Amino acid sequence: MLEAKFIRENSDIVKKALKNRSDKPELVDKFLKVDQIRRDLLQEVEALKRKKNEASKKIGELIKQKKDAEGAKEKVNKISEKISKLDNTLGEVEKKFKTIVDMIPNVPHESVPVGKSEKDNKKVREWGKIPKISFTPRDHIELGKINGILDFERAAKITGSGFPLFVGAGAKLERALINFMIDVHVKEHGYKEICPPVLANSKSMRGTGQLPKLAEDMYKIQEEDLFLIPTAEVPLTNLHADEVIKEESLPIYYTASTACFRREAGSYGKDTRGLIRVHQFDKVEMVKFTHPDESMKELETLLRNAEDILKKMDLPYRVLELCTSDISFAAHKCYDIELWAPGSKRWLEVSSCSVFSDFQARRANIKYQSKNKKQKPKYVHTLNASGVALPRLVVALLEIYQTKDGSITIPEALKPYFGADKITPNHNSNSYPNCTS
Question: Is residue 109 part of a domain?
Answer without folding.
Answer: no
